[in-house]
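tool=predict chain=A
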Amino acid sequence: MKAKRRFLDHKPPFVGIKRMAADHPSVVTGTTLYPARVAAPERGMLFKSGQHSRKIGGNVTKGRWSGMPIYTLTLEERATCPRDCSHWSTCFGGKMNWSVRWRHGAQLEEYIKFDILALARRHPRGFVVRLHVLGDFYSVEYVDLWARMLDAHPALRVFGYTARDPVGDPIGVRLDTLSRTRWDRFAMRFSNRWLPERSALTLWKPGGVPAHAGVICPAQTGKTECCGTCGLCWQTTKTIFFQVH
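tool=predict ok
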């Protein structure tokens, strides 16, 4: 089995938060701070091993998805996100100047089909995709693509976070239905949306969380190494709190 992570250093939460001014061009136009890192999709290249991410890890070692490798997909922040995202001006993508963001649209969606098929053939016992390291679900059709991928490839598992509104946004409504009905394979949490379950909330300052309210991400508090050694985000529907970073 591959090593869980290439990078081991933890960047402490609550420090070095990059907040852009309201009139910053990237904030106004809804684009990444690093346009040169937005690339046309390449077949066979879309999904990157979670081993390259300190927080995610390359494979799952705990829970019902144990033994499965983890892959990630990165899109352009803000360009694919809702403008009411609570991290519109503080997205941690502002500190990810080397990350390639795949340009969203029809070509991306076509290549996702090929690349997921290839991963399903490579990992018939199961694999996990983290959506999205940066970016978000940008259309109802894109959500439906992932629903079809789940139907076509029983080996596929998905987890991640979305800033979409599960009530007022058609994209969020579709995501809510997909997550609620297929949580065992599509564990999508709603970021900073006050829901009774399947939420991911930001902690903006140090402090404890009452046990009944949820759990602070164990990878941030040093209780586990990474997502792969934890699994809480797809094991439980209880709220997960993330310390701003």
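Helices lie at 25-29, 106-122, 140-152, 170-181, 218-221, 232-235. The chain has a mean pLDDT of 91.
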